[in-house]
Amino acid sequence: MTKAYIVVEGPSDAEILRALLDKTLLEDVKFINGEGKYGAETMARSLLLDRHIPVLLVIDADTSNPEAIRSYQQDLEFLTRSAAMGAPYKILQAVPTIEVVFLQDRTLFEQLINRQFSDLEWQLGQKHPKELINQSPEGATSFIKATLSNLTDSMRHTFRQHPLIQEITAFLTTQVHSSDTVTSVHNAS
């Protein structure tokens, strides 16, 4: 039985989250591919209206501009609130894109990509993570797939420290799982 939905822009976003989130948190949670940002927004509202169970929308902000992020968040909240009709929901924007979770730790990222970056490159990479990841010899898509398929517990723990992953974990913990599950999830981390 599905207890919650996580709506994302596309299949690669779902792959990243499935790999990084604790498996116990994902029990009875279904990922939905929104086939793009606006499709994901529409799908999340439809699920809230039709299913009346928790929905988590995770989309790219596609910007690092705080004012643009805040304004868009307000618009999304306004449009979603009436569709929720009391069902729990959360809208999270990955700033600027979901790939930023791989940049959680500079040393780890440099080891994974097998290259050191100047401070300026690193700062720019925070604003354009896809471009920084694309500097991997195999390209961004292959880098992400290889990283996810070779995750160690230590790497997973590091990536889970990213605020986006922390917020998703908190929502799933409080809205989907009982306090017994919450205790075991935190002890396993």
What does this structure look like?
With 189 residues, the protein is of the alpha/beta class. It has one domain. The chain has 10 helices and 4 strands; from the N terminus they run βαβαβαβααααααα. The protein has a 4-stranded parallel sheet, sandwiched between helices. Helix 2 runs parallel beside helix 3. It is globular. The protein starts with a strand and ends with a helix.
Concise overview:
The protein has one domain (4-188). The protein is 56% helix and 12% strand. The chain is built from ten helices and four strands, in the order E-H-E-H-E-H-E-H-H-H-H-H-H-H.
| Alpha-beta content class | alpha/beta
Report the portion of residues in β strands. 5-15%
Spatial sequence of strands, sheet with the most strands: 2-1-3-4
Q: SSE string, helix = H, strand = E? A: EHEHEHEHHHHHHH
Looking at how many chains there are and whether they match, the oligomeric state comes to single chain
Main beta-sheet annotation: 4 strands, parallel
Number of helices: 10
Q: Which runs of at least 5 residues are low in confidence (pLDDT < 50)? A: 179-189
Count all strands and give the number.
Answer: 4
Mean pLDDT: 93
Structural domains: how many: 1
How much helix, percentage-wise, in residues?
Answer: 55-70%
